[in-house]
Amino acid sequence: MMSVIVRKETDPAGGTSETSGTSRERMIASAALLFRENGYSGTGFRDVVTHSGAPRGSIYHHFPGGKAQLAQETIDYAAGVVESAIERGAAAGDPLAALRATLAWWRATLVASDYRAGCPIVAITVEAHEPELSESADLAFARWERVLAAALRDGGVPPARAARLATLAVAAVEGAVIRCRAARDTAALDEVGRELEAIFRGARDGG
Amino acid sequence: MMSVIVRKETDPAGGTSETSGTSRERMIASAALLFRENGYSGTGFRDVVTHSGAPRGSIYHHFPGGKAQLAQETIDYAAGVVESAIERGAAAGDPLAALRATLAWWRATLVASDYRAGCPIVAITVEAHEPELSESADLAFARWERVLAAALRDGGVPPARAARLATLAVAAVEGAVIRCRAARDTAALDEVGRELEAIFRGARDGG
User: Fold this and answer.
1) Please, what are the domains in chain B?
2) Do B182 and A127 touch (CB under 8 A)?
3) pLDDT digit string (tens) for B93-104?
4) Are B76 and B137 in contact (CB under 8 A)?
5) Helix, strand, or coil here: B67?
6) Do A164 and B191 touch (CB under 8 A)?
7) What local confidence, expressed as pLDDT, does residue B21 receive?
8) What's the rounded Cα separation, in Å, for the pair B119 and A171?
9) Cα–Cα–Cα angle for B76, A116, B69, nearest 5°?
10) Quick one: closest CA in A to B122, which residue?
11) What's the number of CA atoms in the CB half-sphere (13 Å) around residue B158?
């Protein structure tokens, strides 16, 4: 879950490379939580430092490339979190289970945040113009599509169709998450989920 | 088209209420262009003044409610621009034509901006938390869904299914626009369009 409780207490092991990793990871997790609520421009290094409880100077040490580097690593981190949620669903060997796991993950994120939080990768994509951020976002979306497409192929859907349906599903779910934030309810995700399930079922059964 | 050339020359009629309206509209059009590229937090009043060529003080005169008021009116304006594009397509009485018009409009916007521009309403929704902005965005998405749902009903799709498919289509197109910005190509819109066309066709033919 991306909605981890970011620990604010001082790391008892202070100063080792182990701690360094932990403090770095904490900053990335904080950045994901802040970007997905307040956007890329709306989140500063200062906010990430405060949220993560990390020592002020350490953010420059860990991210010498500045906010773009932090954003790029946040994209990779968030890509992995969502990919894991899809993979856990796909482990049942059923594309519908993978889809339902994705939808359940997003519903939980929206409700837990009172509709303040969406996808940090979307937030970065819609306002950052650094080429390395677009490339990382592109890879992130492709990772999710790949897991869904594999689940569809495992369910008997021909490869080209599986790839197109995965693209449709990821796009529709991302769009529905935004729609749910505007509406402050999960109706759009529920409706999109219902239609996607029917489409996946039809494709699996040779439709 | 939202990619209007924002006039920078001084209005020859200077000072009349007509000019006031024009200068106001110019600021809203500029805000739409800036929000959709750089986001809500990434766009300041100063940027809107510079882009629109409006007198500096006039933005406070026209938008005494500040950036939130400007954003709210920008949402209404952008909602109308996209709604018109969908309606022009729907005028042929065919839901597929309405869908194709929507896709063509977004493809043109992405390509013309070299993939820098997306949807200003999405940009505002993913990082602004003012309730009036969520409400306006909700109404905007609902307007587009309503036009698409009407086209589907005109094509013989039962009302409840037409509403769900319209929600799916708007969400999928918005998600695909973001995906295209990350990938810097229109493949996602093409694939999503192909699947949505098949789904619309199936629903129209009783599928």
Assistant:
1) 67-204 (1.10.357.10)
2) no
3) 899 999 999 999
4) no
5) helix
6) yes
7) 56
8) 14
9) 30
10) A178
11) 4
Cα(B152)–Cα(B68) distance, rounded to whole angstroms? 35
CA distance B96 to B171: 16
Residues 6+ positions from B158 with CB-CB distance below 8 Å? none
Q: What is the Cα Rg of chain A in Å?
A: 18
pTM of the model: 0.90
Residues 6+ apart with CB under 8 A from A78: A2, A32, A36, A119, A120, A121, A140
The mean pLDDT of chain B is 90
Residue owning tokens 């029917």: A198
What's the distance, CA A169 to chain centroid? 14
B205 interfacial to chain A (CB closer than 8 Å)? no
> Would you write out chain B's pLDDT as a tens digit for each of its 207 residues?
334 333 333 333 333 333 445 899 999 999 999 999 999 999 999 999 999 998 888 999 999 999 999 999 999 999 999 999 999 999 888 999 999 999 999 999 999 999 999 999 999 999 999 999 999 999 999 999 999 999 999 999 999 999 999 999 999 999 999 999 999 999 999 999 999 999 999 998 876
Whether the ipTM is more than 0.85: the answer is yes
What is the least distance, in Å, from the CA of B176 to any CA of chain A? 5
| DSSP code at position B43 | -
Task: Spell out the residues 6+ positions from residue B205 whose beta carbon is closer than 8 angstroms to its own.
Answer: none
CB neighbourhood size of A13 (10 A)? 11
Contacts of B171 in chain A (CB under 8 A): 171-176, 178-179, 188, 192
Tell me chain B's radius of gyration from C-alpha atoms.
18
- Among the residues of chain A, which ranges form H helices? 17-38, 45-52, 58-62, 67-90, 95-112, 120-125, 131-154, 159-183, 187-204
In whole angstroms, give the CA distance from residue B5 to residue A205. 50
Chain A contact for B166 (CB, 8 A cutoff) = no
What CA–CA distance (Å, rounded) separates B37 from B43?
A: 9
Cα B154 to Cα B203: distance, rounded to the nearest angstrom: 12
Contacts of A174 in chain B (CB under 8 A): 171, 174-175, 178-179
**Minimal Cβ distance to A171: which of B135, B141, B172:** B172
CA dist B29 and B12 (Å) reads: 19
